[in-house]
């Protein structure tokens, strides 16, 4: 009887194997994008959690400094290391004593800028951030901001750097002219944006009252940064003014 079973047992034919391989390939093609999206959604959630932690640190900072926001300094290399020459207080490094975790200053989805970056922008063991500060509210009394829950403190950049940048930034010493609250990845391309565009066509944003949420890049407006005229994204960023007074 065992010999009969041994004689009637057969292996898969070549066609059957090819069919199985084809089915596996089809399933993989269907499932891999789903897994990638799930992973990106998890990273977006982690990024939002990071911003919320920064928001908590911001609230603690303003309580300790008589309701004033952190200093306005743009382009601070190695922003989280006060021991280096030329370091200046900035919107990220000033919050470090309240957060105790340098990893929350950046998004896990943002690729690191490494060696060879212009202006010493490469990430360092202490300084890594993909967040941009809003120059309109920095180094300013919270009492002068009419709606802290509706004005952005930080937004996302498309990569992580070791330098603290502010965008929009003041274009003059009097802080009456602001530029670059948005910026296209390549000149003339209105579909690829450098800011608030890391997660599914949008990005996470931290507001001046410490809360954070995700916004779609196409719904971003200058008024969210405390700027006038109130405009959405358009080709050729122009000059804007602070939306409220007094200036300081």
Reconstruct the topology from this structure:
Elements: H1 2-8, H2 14-64, E1 76-77, H3 96-99, E2 129-133, E3 152-161, E4 163-164, E5 169-170, E6 178-179, E7 202-207, E8 212-216, E9 227-228, E10 241-242
Antiparallel strand pairs: 1-4, 2-3, 3-7, 5-6, 7-8, 9-10
Short description:
The chain has 248 residues and is of the alpha+beta class. It is 25% helix and 15% strand. The longest helix has 51 residues, at 14-64.
Can you put this structure into words, describing what you see?
The chain is an alpha+beta fold and 248 residues long. The protein has one domain. The protein is 25% helix and 15% strand. The protein has 3 helices and 10 strands, in the order ααβαβββββββββ. The protein has a 4-stranded antiparallel β-sheet, covered by helices on one side. Strands 1-4 form a two-stranded antiparallel sheet. It has a two-stranded antiparallel ribbon with strand order 5-6. A hairpin with a 4-residue loop joins strand 7 (202-207) and strand 8. The radius of gyration is 24 Å and the shape is elongated.
